[in-house]
Each structure stands twice: as structure tokens, then as C-alpha cells.
Amino acid sequence: MAQLPIKKGTDGILRQRAKPVPKVTKKINKLLKDMLHTMYSAQGVGLAAPQVGKNLRLVVVDVGEGPLCLVNPVLDQFEGTQLDQEGCLSLPGVVGDVRRAAKVRVEALDENGKPVRFIAEGLLARCLQHEVDHLDGILFIDRAIKVREA
Ligand code: NI
What is the CATH number of the domain that holds 43? Predict the structure, then answer.
């Protein structure tokens, strides 16, 4: 597994809309594993492909319930709200309070190309909303009520 460099701050790729993945190939599977390794090494709970310079709709998360790899994730059925502090591996040194849905439904393909669908709540729901935002070129500082030094 490789540890990939994380794109920071004003890098243009963080502001692009990422492209759908047409097929979950071995190469995509390896990229997801490298993303997980990179996320764990940086002590993050989520990472999106644009953060490692890949303009693809891929995210990995682990909020302490085990690793989750998602290809072309789509969120819907947003319910309730939660307000809590967020940070981002691409924006070291700053945090902010972000209002997110408390509960979302997730549809995606897993690292083997198998369709998955589940309801996420709490921290997992927050993390998935943050990561899917990355796929649309949105950073948490765009949504934060107050951004401050970490
Ligand atoms: Ni982030």
C-alpha cells in the first residue's frame, strides 16, 4: 500500500466536480486501499479522491466502526440536523462548526463493485456529507458557521 500526498488549501482540484467512476477495476480497488492507508496515516476519519489528486467520485471513511470504501456515493433522505466541529486533512490548522443532516441514506458501490445502500447517523452521517461535498468541490469552510484556528 502506498501513502499518497494530500492536496492542501487552494489546490484547484479541491474545487472541481469529480467524475463518476465507470467501472470498479483492480486499479480503483488499489486506489481505495491506498486512500485508506493515507487516511489512517494522517489520523483522519475520511478522505475523498480529489484530496489525493484524483478527480474521481471515491471516498473512504472510518469513524471507528471499520473501513468503508464507496464508489460514486449518492446521499438522499436527509433528516434532522446536527451541529458540530469539523476539520479537514486538506485544511490543516483550522476547524469550524458545521450544520449537517443527522441522518442520511447512502447509495454507492463498494470496493468490489457491489451495490450497497444503508442509513447513516451521527458522526458517520456527518463524515459522509463532508466527503461527498469534496466530490462536488465544496469544503467545510464554505458551510461553517465560524472558522477558527485549531
Ligand atoms: Ni475534508
Answer: 3.90.45.10
